[in-house]
Amino acid sequence: MLFVAFIILLGPFLVIFFASFEPTSTLRFPPTGFTLSWFKKVIAMPMFQKSFLLSLRLALLSSFFALLLGVPVGYLTARYDFKLKRFIELLTTLPVIIPGMVAGLALLKFFVLLNVFDVETTLLVGHTAIVLPYVVRSTVASLVNFPASVEEAAMSLGATPLKNFFLVVLPNIRVGIVSAFILTFITSFNNVPISLFLTGPGVSTLPIVMMTYMEYYYNPSIAALSTLLIGATLAVVLLAQKIFGISKLL
Amino acid sequence: MMSFLRLIDITVGYQKDNTVLKNFNLSVEKGTFLSLLGPSGCGKTTTLRLIAGFLEPLAGKVIVNEIDYTNLPPHKRKMGIVFQNYALFPHMNVFENVAFGLKMRKIEKNEIQRRVKQAITMVGLQGLENRFPSQLSGGQQQRVGIARAIVIQPDLLLMDEPLSNLDANLRLEMRNEIKRIQRELKITTIYVTHDQSEAIALSDQVAVMNEGKIQQFGTPQEIYFNPKNRFVAKFMGFQEIASGVVKEIFQNHALVTVEDKVMQTRYTADLSVGERVVLVTRPRKIKIQREDGQNAFCASVLSELFQGENLAVVVSFQDKQFVVEMYEQRELPEAEKIFLHVSADDLIALKEA
Fold first, then answer.
1. Considering the entire predicted model, what is its pTM?
2. So what's the architecture of B5-230 in CATH?
3. Which of A69, B267, B286, B326 could join B311 in a cystine, given CB atoms 3.0 to 4.6 angstroms apart?
4. How much is the ipTM here?
5. Would you say B229 and B216 are in contact if contact means Cβ atoms under 8 Å apart?
6. Which residues of A touch B75 (CB under 8 A)?
7. Residue A123 in contact with residue A57, Cβ under 8 Å?
């Protein structure tokens, strides 16, 4: 059973990994030889470089804005009772329920009607919208384990609400916020359905460019790129795990 | 001279028709140790949170030292609070926890050092300054909680069931510590508890609360020996053993007709002749005897239980069931009928309604 699970979970990645060293120009498993030329090729391709930088910018900025908005909203929903509370709780579960395609189409309609932002801003708003709920949920989950009386203690000792938040609350939900950041970063970076609708001429994210590329060329360069991405993601998660020990929260 | 803390006509509630406190009044003199004693849901914690500033009343005023605190946010008040769950800052060590309140008040660094050290010494935690809360026992954590609250030299020390999370032996030890610290600092203290022995042992004054009202306010002796109504009596360990009608009232005692007998009792609140009353006493004050006599009545035995220290006998009389604790004599008399005797000094008549 364990073996089957391993094959299902790891098999596809191993195939891609080995295929990226294939010297001929077709995807093949097992590879017929060994070369690093595909890696050199994809790294040098302007199309991939440009879209990689865009995806990186999007992932960083959308995560940043999502944290900026989501942490306070999560804090308020966890600590206070107000009329919109149930509504916000419902909103944060929507991305799990609504298919990405539907959300992408809705966002497209919305921005076409608005017609005020350029493509990159539109993408940024769209990505922030889909990752925001993760931040809210992660913040709420962290606060459940952090008694409100600790904050009351801080305030009784003279901490203003702002000082309480930065000196007492934030340091104690740090792990939750870091894990939320990793989650939002990866979600944004890998997103296809939303980006598919919101990309425009000359402005496209890496996953979309990869998809388009594959429709025309079926060679190991895509496998090499995938191997690079998997490696980078693993490195980030392992680093965070090493620093914060967040595996439980992810 | 007005009282140091005054709560005037306070109403607290979540909706208008659902109030926790209604027209609530309380005055506390400077330097007093006052306990708010009552069962859960009686409003004692609400009162404490109101004083701390975590709740705003729908009506009424909170006055501390002649200053209106009613709408003052918690961080502008000067209250030291000790919580049931300690509520220490998990990311700070003992020193930083205690220093927090002083840092918030922008006190000079050397002064912080000095005062934190003094507070830590006072609660007996020298040498543990660099430990984190998770590395301390429950008792030690609560000592940090107390040090953190007193180091800011608060106007009021508010304690919300501070010993409830500790085990029984530690609770007794910490009780003495709290009393010692309060005496040394002469700090005005409001102590919330549901444990009557804690309230009795610690307080200068006790307010017994139920359903958002103070049922009785007085010294521990007054509360313990002279409960003024059935609720306070029950809460202080009295039990109801009979009901009857007031026959005659004298200056120091009253005569109460219980079925065909007349019992001599004390009274703690005004009674009138002809009024229905219940008689209360403590389990250890009832004597079991073979023969009838003065201040005695006939009851039937339901069960008995050897408890080591005493023999607890459950008896019934009228519609009431209660416990008699036998300390010296360890066997029930072998008789068809047993009689219960309570001396007039140990028996109190309280209004039935």
1. 0.83
2. 3-Layer(aba) Sandwich (3.40)
3. B326
4. 0.86
5. yes
6. 155-161, 164
7. no
Under DSSP, the state recorded for A116 is -
Residue with the bigger pLDDT between B317 and A197: it is B317
Average the pLDDT over A160-171 and give the result.
93
Q: What is the mean pLDDT of residues B157-170?
A: 92
> How far is residue B306's CA from residue B311's CA, in Å, rounded to a whole number?
5
Choose the weakest-confidence range: A45-59, A111-125, B104-118. A111-125
Give the separation between CA B43 and CA B125, rounded to whole angstroms. 34
Yes or no, beta carbons of B81 and A161 under 8 Å apart: no
Instruction: Select the residue of B53, B85, B105 nearest A147 (Cβ to Cβ).
Output: B85
Q: Provide, as residue numbers in chain B, all residues whose Cβ is less than 8 Å from the Cβ of A177.
A: none
**Which residue on chain A is closest to B89 by alpha carbon?**
A150
Contact A157 B101 (CB under 8 A): yes
CATH number of B231-351: 2.40.50.140
- Structural contact between residues B201 and B33, judged by C-beta atoms closer than 8 angstroms: no
* A13 to A19, A35, A182, B24: CA distances (angstroms): 10, 18, 21, 70
Domain count, chain A: 2
Same domain for A140 and A22 = no
Q: In angstroms, rounded to a whole number, what is the distance separating the alpha carbons of residues A135 and A128?
A: 10
In which domain, by residue range, is A80 found?
46-215
What residues of B are in contact with residue A163 (Cβ under 8 Å)?
Answer: 104
CB B157 within 8 A of CB B150: yes
Do A128 and A34 lie in a common domain? no
Query: Rounded to 10 degrees, what is the CA torsion of B242, B243, B246, B247?
Result: -70
Q: Between the CA of residue B42 and those of A95, B15, B19, B199, B217, what are the distances in Å?
A: 44, 17, 11, 15, 15
Kindly report, residue by residue over A142-164, the tens digit of the pLDDT.
Answer: 998 899 999 999 999 999 999 99
